[in-house]
Design brief:
- β7 and β8 (about 110-115) form a beta hairpin.
- The protein has 9 helices and 18 strands.
- The protein is about 30% helix and about 30% strand.
- About 40% of the residues are buried.
- The chain has about 280 residues and is α+β, with helices and mostly antiparallel strands.
- The model has no long low-confidence stretch (mean pLDDT about 90).
- GO terms for molecular function: kinase activity.
- InterPro entries: HprK-rel_A, P-loop_NTPase.
- This is HprK-related kinase A.
- Keywords: Kinase, Transferase.
């Protein structure tokens, strides 16, 4: 199976059959495209041993013949494909600045949400992406080195544990993957936020704000402005390849922060945060 996410093309082989049906549901017209076109990354699943093909079968994910994860049970392969695609981009694309963050766009204006795992950034981005915003990515901002604009990738949004129920309760008609229980991150599911047809209309967007979110159950909404130095530091801290890019990375981030506002967000009410974000775009 070939998956075209816009900037990157992946070929997936050797996965259990259920993975292909789930990927087809999530990515629709982005899968099974022309095999004649070159792919950027090859993701292959192989068996760990002949015995493991019979007893408690396991698979190992290899990227271009390089093993990147520990062996996993067959019923946990689906999240590994998504994680493998993330790993490929973060490890090998140094033609763009890559920042670990969600990206939301409205009126051609982008807001970047750099944050550590567990901050709730993907949940926030997915809820807003299903409610009028364009979700360019729930995993990484892809920043052009010349214009400092961000572009979209056609990927499903990743949800963990309680977030799956939260999003499903508000958007029960959205297209969800099966939930994989017992991964190293707990329960994992993916949701299609935009179709391929919608994605194809997403152009580069200028960054007008950088917001560092932190979900705290029951907390009142707090919005703390940050200065440019604090914002710059947050982006550097969450970048995958800033140090690799060197001077180019610095110049790109410098250009990005000139036109952006910076905030730290502490919240439990998504609607209140959504109202605030609307004022920024």
């Amino acid at each position: 199976m070939i998956i075209d996410t816009g900037h990157y093309r992946f070929r997936v082989s050797g996965a259990p059959e259920y993975c292909y049906s789930e990927l087809s549901r999530m990515y629709g017209d982005s899968v099974n495209l022309s095999p004649e076109k070159p792919v950027d990354f090859q993701l292959d699943f192989t068996s760990t041993s002949w015995l493991r093909t019979l007893v408690r079968p396991q698979r190992v994910l290899n990227v271009d013949n390089q093993r990147i994860f520990n062996p996993i049970a067959k019923d946990k392969c689906l999240p590994s494909i998504e994680w493998g695609m993330n790993w490929c981009v973060a490890s090998y694309d140094h033609t763009r600045l890559l920042i670990h963050s969600s990206v939301l766009v409205k009126n051609d204006k982008a807001i970047i949400f750099p944050a550590a795992q567990g901050s709730g950034k993907s949940t926030l981005a997915t809820l807003l992406g299903l409610n009028g915003w364009h979700l360019y990515s729930d995993e990484m901002a892809i920043v052009d080195l010349n214009s400092a604009t961000v572009s979209a990738v056609h990927r499903a949004s990743s949800l963990k544990n309680q977030s799956i129920k939260v999003v499903h309760s508000q958007f029960p008609n959205a297209v969800f993957s099966r939930t994989t229980e017992g991964t190293q991150k707990g329960a994992i599911a993916h949701v299609q936020v935009h179709s391929r047809a919608e994605f194809d209309h997403f152009g580069p967007a200028s960054v007008v704000a950088v917001a560092c979110p932190k979900y705290v159950g029951g907390a009142r909404t707090e919005i703390l402005p940050l200065n440019q130095s604090q914002g710059f530091a947050q982006l550097v801290r969450n970048s995958f390849n800033y140090s690799t890019l060197g001077e180019q990375g610095f110049e790109t981030l410098f250009k990005l922060v000139q036109g952006a506002e910076f905030f730290a967000l502490r919240y439990s009410n998504v609607n209140e945060i959504g109202d605030f974000l609307e004022t920024l775009v």
